[in-house]
Amino acid sequence: MDLETRPKLRKHERREQILLELRLRPHVRISELSERFRVSTETVRRDLGKLSEDGLLDRAHGGASALALGRYPTLDERASARLEERERIGRRAAYLVQPGETLMIDSGSTTLQLARFLAFDQTPCTVVTNSLPVAMALGQSETVEVIVCPGDYLASESAVIGTDVIEFLGRHSVDRCFIGASGLWSGGPSETVRGFAAIKRMMLRQSAVSHLLIDGKKFGRKGLALVGQLADLTSIVCDRVPPEDLARSLIEADVEVVLAR
After folding, report:
1. Contact 107, 157 (CB under 8 A)
2. What is the topology classification, in CATH, of domain 75-259?
3. Which of 31, 50, 87, 239 is the most buried (most CB within 10 A)?
4. What is the pTM of this model?
C-alpha cells in the first residue's frame, strides 16, 4: 500500500507515531510529519503543541525534539527520603476514602503510602492507577478492585505514561482522585517527571473530588509542566502549614488544607 492510498491516521495515532519517531531520532520536522501523515502543517503544530503541553516532547524551531532527560530522582530514591512524612500524609489521605468509593491514584512515592494504608485498613474500593507499585500494594487487600491503565512503561517510575493512559482515564469517572506533584506554588501544582502532568490533569478532570498529597518541602517549587490551577483541587494533604503567600492563594481558590499530624 503506497502513501497516497494508506488510510489517514487519527489524531491519537499521529501523536503516538510522533513519540515513536522521537525514540528513534532526536528531532522531527513539521514539514516531514505533514507530508508523512498527509495533513496540514498547522495540524502537526497542534499535535506537537499538545504533546509539549503534556510534557512528552520539547518544541523546537520547525519541529520538536526528544525530551532532554535531567537527573530527577527515581521513584525508589524518592520513596526512601522523608519516609516518616510520606507515611503520615498517606495515612491521613486514606481516612478520606469512604467504603465503596471509586478512586484514581497516580504514581508517586507519597501516593504509594496511601495505597499501602488503604490495603492495610481493608477499605473496600475500586482503584484506577497507572502505577505498578500502587497496584501491587492494593492487590494485597481482598477488598480492593484494581484497574491498571495501559500505556508505555517508564522504568524509573515503575509506571505507564503516554496517550493510551490519558484516553483510558478519559473513559472513567470516579468519586475522588489522589495525585502527587513535584511542586506547588500559587499558580498550581506542577510536575517534573516526563509524561506525568497530562495524566494528573486527566485524573483531576475525571474526579468529583480531587486531593493533592504533597510534602511541605515542595511548597514554592515549580516543576517543568503545570498540572492545573489551584481551583482544580478540593484539598491538599500535607505535613506542614503552607507559607503565608501560598496559604492565602489556597484560601482564595477554596482549597482545604488537611494536615497530617
Report:
1. yes
2. Rossmann fold (3.40.50)
3. 239
4. 0.73
Q: CATH 1.10.10.10 residue ranges in the chain?
A: 11-65
Q: Distance between CA atoms of 36 and 33, rounded to whole angstroms?
A: 5
| CB of 221 closer than 8 Å to CB of 253 | no
d(CA 23, CA 35): 20
CATH 3.40.50.1360 domain residues, the chain: 75-259
Q: Which whole-number Å values give the CA distances from 125 to 81, 92, 142, in the listed order?
A: 29, 17, 10
Over 187-250, what HEC string results? CEEEECCCCHHHHHHHHHHCEEEEEEEECHHHECCCCCEECCCHHHCCEEEECCCCCHHHHHHH
Give the pLDDT confidence of 169-186 residue by residue, as tens digits.
999 999 999 999 999 999
Q: Does domain 11-65 have CATH number 1.10.10.10?
A: yes
d(CA 113, CA 135): 12
Q: What angle do CA 230, 170, 160 make, to 5 degrees?
A: 85
**Band (197; pLDDT cuts 50, 70, 90):** very high
- The answer to which of 26-40, 132-146, 228-242 has the lowest mean pLDDT is 26-40
The Cα 42–Cα 23 span in angstroms is: 23
In the structure, what pLDDT confidence band is assigned to residue 77 with cuts at 50, 70 and 90?
low
Helices of type H across 105-162: 109-121, 132-138
d(CA 249, CA 56): 29
Burial class (CB in 10 A: 0-12, 13-18, 19+), 166: buried
Instruction: Give the Cβ contact number of residue 158 at 10 Å.
Output: 18
